[in-house]
Amino acid sequence: MTSETTHEVASPQGERPRVVLGVAGGIAAYKAAELLRRFTESGHDVTVVPTASALEFVGAPTWAALSGKPIATGVFENITEVPHVRIGQQADLVVVAPATANTLARAAHGLADDLLANVLLTARCPVVFAPAMHTEMWEHPATVDNVATLRRRGAIVVEPAEGRLTGKDTGKGRLPDPDEIFGLCVDVLARGTTAPDLGGRRVVVSAGGTREYLDPVRFLGNRSSGLQGYALARAAAARGAEVVLVAANVALPDPAGVKVVHVETTAQLRDEVVTAAGGADAVVMAAAPADFRPTSVSDAKIKKADDGSVPTIELAQNPDVLHEISHHRSRPDSVIVGFAAETGDATGSVLELAKAKLARKGCDLLVVNDVSGGAVFGSPDNEAVILAADGAAIDVPSGSKGALAHVIWDHVVARLPT
């Protein structure tokens, strides 16, 4: 997990946040033990509710030892405490990981045939499902409809990851990394709302810095770490959006529930962003595309000359991705957000240069970072000024990049058509 994610959140009453971890009967149940450990070590009060099938994969003693609580699986256990009602009523968050096709179907149809199903019916807090199943099951029309139903009701159903499944199978359906599920859940808890305001929305985020190769070894690049773009993608997923993240040369784990497309060059970034932006409600260009590229790339490593001479490198200008998607929108009501890393120079201050850039690019919002002295790059924190096309300027004080991501999405949501 990145340092952008908040590790502990207090409930409104100042108590430890009460999390219900539902575990369904899939082979990925063993990964839920790591998720449980993350919650308990960060100070959350966790009640584990495994299904009978889940206990075939990981036994009750494991859940009891990691949570510090006895494990209840039936609606008639401790009946005087009415667990089938109380557990859901008292929760600040319910997360089901893994969520099997069967669990999603039962939740979508409101069945109450075991303790976990009852908890899902009585919970009035945010509910997160982290699915894990074979690709064919995830793509079956019944599962697709069930997921759509749950999302329409306000649940957050994260997209499963792609990779190795049970046996020799590979494909989409793998449980996202437990650290990333934890980060998303903490983000949901921090917002303290059951309404995912980006539910049903499709957003595109770019992150990282592009590379323009000189030869097979060397390239022109920049210092962008991708942390802010990944924070934006993670925040959008926590708010219920379908997220496509176009990542340029980023060494970070894929955020849970986000489709990640990896690229290297500005041309590749441009192609993927333009394709993904078709039909998107919002595009946030947090990546740092290289402005220039060499006009030719050597097939072999460029060697030092014995006489001390150095090669001349001719550069050509790269396409301006932000300008293109702002001026040629596939949807006229989409919201486009750009980033400006400025230092100020003899021609103007940071804000003066940024305002000129906003007008030139044609985007709706421009997030301005003063990067004098290398500030912001690689740091878990950020501060910015958000400039709007209507003339507004919003100062965002120093804080985590995750916090800035939510401020940006707040302003995007305010501009989306209802």
From TrEMBL:
One example of a Gene Ontology biological process annotation: coenzyme A biosynthetic process
Co-factor requirement: Mg(2+); FMN
Region span, Phosphopantothenate--cysteine ligase: 203-418
Protein keywords: Decarboxylase, Flavoprotein, FMN, Ligase, Lyase, Magnesium, Metal-binding, Multifunctional enzyme
GO MF term list: FMN binding; metal ion binding; phosphopantothenate--cysteine ligase activity; phosphopantothenoylcysteine decarboxylase activity
Enzyme Commission code: 4.1.1.36, 6.3.2.5
Annotated region (Phosphopantothenoylcysteine decarboxylase), positions in chain: 1-202
Record-listed CTP binding positions: 291, 301, 319-322, 339, 357, 361
GO annotation, cellular component aspect: phosphopantothenoylcysteine decarboxylase complex
Pathway this chain belongs to: Cofactor biosynthesis; coenzyme A biosynthesis; CoA from (R)-pantothenate: step 3/5; Cofactor biosynthesis; coenzyme A biosynthesis; CoA from (R)-pantothenate: step 2/5
PANTHER family for this protein: HOMO-OLIGOMERIC FLAVIN CONTAINING CYS DECARBOXYLASE FAMILY (PTHR14359), PHOSPHOPANTOTHENOYLCYSTEINE DECARBOXYLASE (PTHR14359:SF6)
Functional summary from the UniProt entry: Catalyzes two steps in the biosynthesis of coenzyme A. In the first step cysteine is conjugated to 4'-phosphopantothenate to form 4-phosphopantothenoylcysteine, in the latter compound is decarboxylated to form 4'-phosphopantotheine.
Family per record: In the C-terminal section; belongs to the PPC synthetase family. In the N-terminal section; belongs to the HFCD (homo-oligomeric flavin containing Cys decarboxylase) superfamily.
Record's protein name: Coenzyme A biosynthesis bifunctional protein CoaBC
Species for this entry: Nocardioides terrae
Lineage: Bacteria, Bacillati, Actinomycetota, Actinomycetes, Propionibacteriales
